[in-house]
Every structure is written in C-alpha cells, then in structure tokens.
C-alpha cells in the first residue's frame, strides 16, 4: 500500500498535540527521568493517577545507563532486587545482599512498565520554574524545550498544572534550587535551604534515602539522589536500590495525600 508522508507528519503532530493538551493539568508532575522518577511514575500511574514526567534529555534513565565508570552493570541490595523483580528485570546474586543487573535492561524495563501503567513521558522538555498561587503554594511547572534552553533563544515557556510535584532531578536538585531562588529559604530542612550532598558512603546514603524522601515544600516532594542532597546525606555511587525504594516511597506518600483529598472532597 502507498504511504503518504504528509499523513505521517499529521499523525505525529496530531497525537503529540492531543497528549500535550490532555496533560495540561495532572495529579502529579515528576521532574527528572532518572530511576527514582520513573519508579515513582510507575506506582502512581498503576494506582490510576494522572502522572507526567519531564526530562531534559532525549533519553530517559538519568545516571543509570552508565552503571559505574561506564561499565553498564548496576548493584542493588536485597530490597532493591525485590522491586526489580516486580518489573521483571533480571538480577544476579553476587554476594549476600548484593545483586547485579544490566543497566540497559533496568532502565528499559522500568520505563516499559511505567509507560504501560500510564506514565506520560515528555522528553526534551526542561522545567525552568514552578507555578505558584498568590500565597506561593506550588501548583504546577513552567516548561520549555531543551533546545530553547540550550540555544539561549528568548522564547517564553508554557505552564502545566499539578496537585503535587516530585523533585527527582538528581544531584543538581534543580527544583529545590528554583524554590530557594524564587520563594526563599522555605524548604522543610533544618536550614530552610539545601543542606548539601556529602561524600561517598553507600551504607549511610542508602540507609537514609527513604527517610529523606518527603515533602520539602507545600505540595513538592523530593526523591532519589536529590533527597539526600537536599537533606545533607551522603552520595552512594553505582548502587541503585535506594533510587527505586525512594521512587516507591514518594509514590506511596503522595497516593496517601491524594486519597485523603478525595475523601474530604
Ligand atoms: O540523575 P538521575 O539519574 O537522578 P536519580 O533518579 O538517580 C540518581 C542516580 O542516577 C545516580 C546516583 C545513585 O546511584 O547517585 O546519580 O535521583 O536523573 C535525574 C534526571 O533529571 C533530569 C536530568 O536530565 C536527569 O536525566 N533533569 C534535571 N533537571 C531537570 C531535568 C529539569 N530542570 N528539567 C527536566 N529534567
């Protein structure tokens, strides 16, 4: 059968446009498509919530593809391996409480199941600001094409609405930084600011990440490496169990809040 190039173009424009409009207002907007963001998106979407994820780069997966020093293997502990099993991702026991997994299979497995569950991914879009109400409650995101950001062109962004935001931007904790810059030292940390990431210690980092996965400002939750950076814990390097556990935890906390909201509505 003959193929019409114009129909191909029209299909892409039409479908993307519909998706963009459909996701103009969501239950949860995730910033950052690393392992923590994807995992959070999976559990939220599986529960039936409308969730979008914004990723600056072309590829989703953040720092997971490269394993450790570009050796594309990751390590997870027992608890992390259990989560990978839920996603049908293969792990290999290396020693007691140490499992390895192929980083490419892990990223693609997480993403496959998250998008199948209903997570809507917007790649090549960067979050440059948060949207706020008059009393500075965060109620959405301000997004623009990464190509605009990279080229430095003066092109205004657009806005999306969200009941909750997940800051999952990794080491940079960009959303926490935006809040500090625009609203002030209002974070729910001891200093009100970003406490800062400490040097590498996998034991401390992995055991503190779930505790650090929590609300950092009205309606804004932090997950993944950003959680340890915001609350001043250590970094953990190429052990990734904490990223998935943090993604699951943030999803559970927000699901609880959403359900409370549904009851009181
Ligand atoms: O860095 P990243 O993988 O974060 P994570 O999910 O996982 C951390 C680990 O990869 C590793 C580690 C643990 O073992 O230490 O670093 O916490 O993914 C964060 C993603 O957020 C994107 C960025 O491109 C990356 O893919 N990102 C950051 N800022 C923005 C953003 C922004 N302003 N808008 C959109 N995407």
Please give a quick description of this structure.
The chain has 265 residues and is an alpha/beta fold. It has 9 helices and 13 strands. Strands 1, 2, 6, 7, 8, 9, 11 and 12 form an 8-stranded mixed beta sheet that branches.
Fold and architecture overview:
With 265 residues, the chain is an alpha/beta fold. The protein has a single domain (25-264), classed as FAD/NAD(P)-binding domain (3-Layer(bba) Sandwich). 42% of the residues lie in helices and 25% in strands. The strands form 3 sheets. Strands 1, 2, 6, 7, 8, 9, 11 and 12 form an 8-stranded mixed sheet that branches. A 3-stranded antiparallel sheet has the order 3-5-4. A two-stranded parallel sheet has the order 10-13. Strand 11 (215-217) and strand 12 form a beta hairpin. Helix 3 (78-86) packs across helix 9. The mean pLDDT is 98. Residues 31-37, 54-57, 62-64, 126-127, 168-172, 174, 224-226, 235-236, 238, 240, 243 line the site of ligand 48F.
Blueprint (SSEs and pairs):
Layout lengths: L4 H18 L2 E7 L3 H12 L4 E5 L17 E4 L1 H9 L5 E4 L2 E5 H15 L2 E4 L1 E8 L5 E8 H6 L6 E10 L6 H9 L15 E3 L1 H11 L2 E3 L2 E3 L2 H7 L2 E2 L5 H24 L1
Parallel strand pairs: 1-2, 1-9, 2-6, 9-12, 10-13
Antiparallel strand pairs: 3-5, 4-5, 7-8, 8-9, 11-12
Helix pairs in contact: 2-4, 2-9, 3-9, 7-8, 7-9
The chain binds ligand 48F.
Ligand 48F binds next to helix 2, strand 2, strand 7 and helix 8.
């Amino acid at each position: 059968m003959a193929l019409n190039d114009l129909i191909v173009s029209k299909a892409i424009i039409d479908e993307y446009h519909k998706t963009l409009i459909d996701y103009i207002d969501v239950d949860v907007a995730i910033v950052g498509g690393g392992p923590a963001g994807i995992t959070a998106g999976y559990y939220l979407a599986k529960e039936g919530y409308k969730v979008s994820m914004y990723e600056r780069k072309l590829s989703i997966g953040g720092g997971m593809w490269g394993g450790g020093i570009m050796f594309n293997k990751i390590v997870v502990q027992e608890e992390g391996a259990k989560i990978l099993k839920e996603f049908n991702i293969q792990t290999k026991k290396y020693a007691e409480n140490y499992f390895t997994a192929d980083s490419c299979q892990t990223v693609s497995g997480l993403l496959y199941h998250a998008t199948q569950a209903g997570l809507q991914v917007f790649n090549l879009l960067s979050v440059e600001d948060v949207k706020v109400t008059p009393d500075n409650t965060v109620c959405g995101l301000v997004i623009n094409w990464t190509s605009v950001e990279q080229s430095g062109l003066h092109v205004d962004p657009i806005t999306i609405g969200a009941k909750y935001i997940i800051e999952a931007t990794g080491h940079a904790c960009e959303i926490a930084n935006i809040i500090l810059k625009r609203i002030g030292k209002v974070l729910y940390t001891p200093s009100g600011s970003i406490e800062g990431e400490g040097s590498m210690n996998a034991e401390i980092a992995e055991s503190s990440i779930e505790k650090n996965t929590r609300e950092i400002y009205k309606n804004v939750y932090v997950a993944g490496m950003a959680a340890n950076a915001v609350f001043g814990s250590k970094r953990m390097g190429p052990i990734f169990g904490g990223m998935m556990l943090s993604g699951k935890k943030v999803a559970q906390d927000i699901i609880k809040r959403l359900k409370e909201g549904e009851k009181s509505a």
